[in-house]
Amino acid sequence: MAARAPVASGRLLLGFRKWYYNLCGFNKLGLMRDDTVYEDADVQEALRRLPENQYNERMFRVKRALDLSMKQQILPKEQWTKFEEDVHYLTPYLEEVIRERKEREEWMKK
Length: 110
Description:
Keywords: Electron transport, Membrane, Mitochondrion, Mitochondrion inner membrane, Respiratory chain, Transport. InterPro entries: QCR7, QCR7_sf. This is Cytochrome b-c1 complex subunit 7. Belongs to the UQCRB/QCR7 family. Helix 2 (41-49) packs across helix 4 (91-109). The model has no long low-confidence stretch (mean pLDDT 90). The chain is globular and about 55 Å long. The longest helix is centred in the N-terminal third of the chain and has 20 residues, at 5-24. 62% of the residues lie in helices and 0% in strands. By secondary structure, it is an all-alpha fold.
């Protein structure tokens, strides 16, 4: 029984994550998780490094979400971003930018 506990808790955690993902509401506007990140200097640099097609797709999603928000509407359910389809497209670029910034700060200390 003890060997099965991590599997059960893993499924429980996944269920909770899906529930919370849908509760947040950004998926009902067609946004992905990385579309909702606050744009500080690091995020702006990461966005600058995105491939052009990913940047254009992001801008389309953001503009569509703004339009829907202004109209106080949401997308039809079949167009919502699903938990399984949401990819962290910005995260690798953002981690690289933060790592470079910290390295630069550490270099400047010496």
